[in-house]
């Protein structure tokens, strides 16, 4: 494994911790600022929306500098946002801090995906991307449960102080280990935007929004769901998040391995299974053992979609992948924001803490339908391409025989 992948994984670990740890301390933050849990859910939605905006904006601005320098800048922005969250005197200020930190998220993973793919052979690109994202999954095994425990014992402000320190470590890792690759080869903003003329790029992005959004519909409200429905004590949320993280870790590895072999079949399988498991979660959430198993499965199936979806975008936007890659990372978080908001809506409507699982199942099932459409369009274009190639070969042979 190239050491640069380790540096990217370190940065991903810090970003993954701050993205997900808020869900473990959401009740404490809500109590601290005197707001309701659905209102506190805006710390999830606001972060996600910041990623959606920051991913394309900072990626476009980053075309003027080397990818290494841009990654270092993004980690610096991440540190500032988390430090502000740690000292926030009001809910509004904390929301601003979360948004500042989130601006770095999409561009880091987007640019990092391109760097990771460039470090290995073409047939190993999805595996390299999954290794970078491994930092995010390990964050859910170690960083998020640890941060949740610290937040419950010492206070959530200590949690975000430690997260800011993780960002500093990530910044130093990028500075030390990531090679200077120069500016993106495409060179112009117009070329980067040209990738979006391909309808398959849009379909892959939409699959990302809906498919991974399904995960966040359930996981955003995992703390009240597990404590008020399943009957777990508040302290048990820490190890439940460990199970979720273990599922993410395993799903990420499997997604990366099988996406290099059979990308679309991998998406069909994982999206269908994810929709089914989320639907079942409305029932299994009432039993402690079944709830724990389901949380693990949601993590595994949800993150098994990440490497194939990211590789799908890189493949379809191969001439100018940097912006498309970052936009797709933003799409993950647009799905997170949409799902967290919809989950809050159904809870506020009095449908109960398991109602977001229905939302998640519908979102993931919609992504499955889009994956079928993308595969159908692939099959329509391939025969036409084959006929064109065959026709060109026949014309060349005819010209040769006739002396033209």
Topology:
Layout: H1 3-24, H2 26-33, H3 37-40, H4 42-61, H5 67-87, H6 91-118, H7 125-153, H8 156-177, H9 189-194, H10 199-219, H11 222-230, H12 237-259, H13 263-284, H14 288-304, H15 306-316, H16 321-348, H17 355-402
Helix pairs in contact: 1-6, 1-7, 1-8, 4-6, 4-16, 5-6, 5-8, 6-7, 6-16, 7-8, 7-12, 7-15, 10-13, 10-14, 10-15, 10-16, 10-17, 12-14, 12-15, 13-14, 13-15, 13-17, 15-16, 16-17
What do these coordinates show?
By secondary structure, the protein is mostly helical. It has a single domain, classed as MFS general substrate transporter like domains (Growth Hormone, Chain: A), CATH 1.20.1250.20. It contains 17 helices and no strands. It has helices spanning 3-24, 26-33, 37-40, 42-61, 67-87, 91-118, 125-153, 156-177, 189-194, 199-219, 222-230, 237-259, 263-284, 288-304, 306-316, 321-348, 355-402. Helix 4 packs across helix 6 (91-118), helix 4 packs antiparallel against helix 16 and helix 7 packs across helix 15. The protein is globular and about 50 Å long. The termini are far apart. Residues 384-404 have low confidence and may be disordered.
Report the CATH C-level class. Mainly Alpha
CATH topology name: Growth Hormone, Chain: A
Radius of gyration: 22 Å
pLDDT < 50 runs, ≥5 residues = 384-404
The shape, in one word, is: globular
Query: Which sheet architecture does the biggest sheet show?
Result: none
CATH architecture: Up-down Bundle
What is the number of domains?
A: 1
Subcellular location: Cell membrane
Organism: Actinomadura nitritigenes
Protein name: MFS transporter
Transmembrane segments: 42-61, 73-93, 99-121, 128-150, 156-178, 199-224, 236-255, 262-283, 289-309, 330-352, 358-377
